[in-house]
Write a structure and sequence with these properties.
The protein is α+β, with helices and mostly antiparallel strands and 272 residues long. It is built from four helices and 19 strands. 15% of the residues lie in helices and 34% in strands. The strands form four sheets. A six-stranded antiparallel beta sheet has the order 1-10-12-11-14-8, with helices on one face. A hairpin with a 4-residue loop joins strand 4 (88-92) and strand 5 (97-99).
Length: 272
């Protein structure tokens, strides 16, 4: 792949080269997890959880070999070991750890597995942090190299088809795969745009517009400001404002039924 600064380049999606693992191997892994070792993904301080996703090592295995990481008897030993080791970037609830350079892919796979990756990069509002990872672009996605991470983020903020950017200054126009990732050797973070980022004090309704936005429904008062940010500011300052949408619309009084509109984000105030 060739990416020229501030120049768009169309790319074709490439499947990850781990197709040699048989269904029997994956079923064996799943069975191993279900035998009392799997579970939900509780938060671990300093780590980003990846439910039902598993690491694949340079050896092509799901478990680390010598030099790739350590196989502990439980997740607590793996957590403590990884936290104490600066070269370790990941562990899972089976007890495996992995170092930067030894883990090459993170892929959707076994049910009940929880993989954790160190949260050493800052969170960014409106984006989901994927530390140490790179995207798999979909067919015909376009990758652009900017002069800085700040420039990549600024473009992604304003471009409706931008789905992600990286701390190394790239952004992508078009969709990316969200259940398979390469592990980056650049010590970079990937930031996936959230269609409707969560907002404190509000219940998020993705793909929904306020009733009345299309002339239907019934609310006490329905109006629209020039932008979603202005509607959010208004609603946060007015106690009787009960909801707003990213198109600038807001309601005062009871919220009627929501209308399904792709791309819309509606936020309804939580009751006290």
């Amino acid at each position: 792949m060739v990416v020229v600064a501030s120049t768009t380049v169309a790319v074709t999606a490439v499947a990850p080269p781990y197709g040699s693992h048989s269904c029997t191997e994956i079923r064996s892994w799943q069975l191993h997890l279900r035998e009392g070792r799997g579970g939900a993904c509780p938060e671990r301080r300093g780590y980003v959880p990846f439910p039902d996703m598993m690491t694949i090592y340079t050896s092509g295995n799901f478990f680390p070999r010598a030099g790739e990481g350590i196989n502990w008897t439980d997740s607590y030993g793996a957590l403590a070991s990884c936290t104490a080791d600066p070269s370790c970037i990941t562990f899972n609830n089976v007890g495996s750890t992995g170092t930067l350079g030894s883990v090459i892919y993170l892929a959707k796979g076994a049910n009940t597995i929880c993989t954790y990756i160190k949260r050493v990069f800052p969170e960014v509002h409106g984006y989901a942090l994927r530390p140490f990872l790179e995207w798999f672009p979909e067919v015909d996605a376009v990758i652009v190299q900017e002069v800085s991470a700040e420039a990549a983020k600024a473009t992604c903020d304003s471009h409706p088809t931008c789905s992600a950017w990286t701390s190394s200054g790239q952004y992508v126009l078009g969709p990316v795969v969200t259940d398979e990732f390469r592990v980056s050797n650049l010590r970079q973070a990937l930031y996936l745009k959230q269609a409707c980022p969560e907002k404190p004090g509000y219940v998020t309704h993705a793909g929904s517009a306020l009733a009345g936005a299309d002339g239907s429904g019934s609310v006490v008062s329905f109006d629209r400001l020039p932008s979603g940010s202005e509607a959010e500011e208004f609603c946060s300052q007015q106690d009787d404002c009960t909801a707003f949408s990213n198109d600038g619309s807001f309601t005062v009084g009871p919220v009627g039924n929501l209308t399904l509109i792709p791309g819309m984000c509606t936020y309804v105030k939580r009751s006290e």
